[in-house]
Structure formats: structure tokens, C-alpha cells
Amino acid sequence: MLPRSDITRGTCLKPSLIRKTHRWLGLIAALQLLIWTASGLFFSIVPINDVRGTHLLQAPPALRLDHVRLISPSSLVSKHQELAVVGLGKVELQQRLYTPVYIVKQADKLSVYHAETAEKLSPLTETEALSIAANSTRLPPLSATWVTEVSQGSEYRNSELPAWKIELKGIDETNLWVGANTGKVSAIRTNTWRLYDFLWSLHIMDYVDRDNFNSWLLRAFALLGVITVGSGLALFFISAKQRKRGSTQP
């Protein structure tokens, strides 16, 4: 039979290894776990409509069907033969400022045609973009900037280009983005949205594109968190068992 001291050393080896592993894993995982918790708290507190800025938008005046004399898509094709191969699902009837338009999507290109005359329209002018902003928001527009490309991580992502970036009056540094061809309000960005977006990048650990939920970095830290919690639970039960065993020994 082994001496009691050998038995003690043998039983303490496994908890010691788990404890050491838990300590170092916890140290590595602690910062990201704190970020997940803090960012999740922010997401749960701030109303999503405040983040999206929808409270700053208003519905612009809409044309009624009895106010316009629309031509048919067939008439549009008769004047622009290049549209004959376009699928029906690629054509939209919309309103651009005070003009009814057909918006045609061909690959990555947008073309806009007057829905009463079939005239192909140029992108919005600065004056037209400012008018759309004035009609679409509760804040007065201050200036407009023509944008043809954006960098990775920009506040304006995966939306229509070229576009007009319109600065609005207010304390939240609000920008309204309007598609230069379609005239649609593509995005509204405030400091609240920018903070949310930054915390979101930390939360999902995609620091550039900020939309990838499946990165190996996120998976690795999620697994690390599970292992850290699991090792902590194992230590709790092993320590409890040792204390109980020690209290029953003579």
C-alpha cells in the first residue's frame, strides 16, 4: 500500500494541472470575455431605432398615379434596345425627387430612365441631392459631397455608388447617404451608429468588414471561453470532493 503522502501527491496532480491551465486560459480569455459582456450590455440598452437613425427620417412627398402619365416597359425598350435582354425582376418603378423613374439593374450597373419620356437620366446634381435630404429628414442639410468609392470599414458599406454624402445639422454628426442614380436614401449615420458599429466589430471580432460571424478568430476565442468555464467548473467539483475527503480522514 502507498504511503498517505504519495496518495495525496497523486490526487493533487490533476487538480494542480487543471488549476494552472484554468489560470492561463482565463488570463487570455478575460479581455475578450469582458468585451463581449460590455458590448452586449450596450446593445441591450440602446434602442436599435436610435442606432439606425430612423427617428430622424420622414416620408417624402409621394407622387400619385393620377399625377403621372407612365410609359410601359415595352415602350422603354423600343427606345433603348439594349434593355431587351434585361429580366423583368431587374426593373423597378420608383420616384426620384419629383420624377417617376424606371431603375434598371444590369450586373453591377444602375441605369435610370424617365418613366414618362423614356429619357435616360444623369446622376443627381448637388441641388437635387440636397432637396431629397430636406424632404427625407427632420434635420436641415448643410453640405453635400460627391463620393465614388469608399474604403474598407467605412460607415457606408455595400450600398449604391456613386452617392451623395450629405452632412446634416445637429449634435450627433449625422450624415445622410443618397444614391446618386436612384435618389434613394441608402443610409443615415450618427455617432451612436458609429459607436455601435465599433463595438460590433469587437463583438464579432471582424475589425474591417464587420459582418463575418464565422472567422477562425471568433471560433477560437469562443472555444477558449468554453474551456475556461469548463475547467473552472471542474476545479470547483474536484476541490469540493477533496475538502469532503479531507474532512472524513482521521
Your description of this structure?
This protein is of the alpha+beta class. Helices cover 45% and strands 17% of the residues. It has a 4-stranded antiparallel β-sheet with strand order 4-5-6-7. It has a 3-stranded antiparallel β-sheet with strand order 1-2-3, with no helix packed on it. A hairpin with a 5-residue loop joins strand 6 and strand 7. Helix 1 crosses helix 6 (216-248). Mean pLDDT is 86; it is low at 1-13.
- The DSSP helix count reads 6
Distance between the termini: 17 Å
Order of helices and strands: HHHEEEHEEEEHH
Main sheet properties: 4 strands, antiparallel
Instruction: Please list the strands of the largest sheet in the order they lie side by side.
Output: 4-5-6-7
- Supply Rg: 30 Å
Average of per-residue pLDDT values: 86
Say how many strands there are: 7
Topology:
Elements: H1 4-45, H2 48-52, H3 73-79, E1 91-96, E2 99-106, E3 109-114, H4 126-136, E4 141-147, E5 163-168, E6 175-179, E7 185-189, H5 191-204, H6 216-248
Q: What would the keywords be for this entry?
A:
four-stranded antiparallel sheet, disordered N terminus, alpha+beta
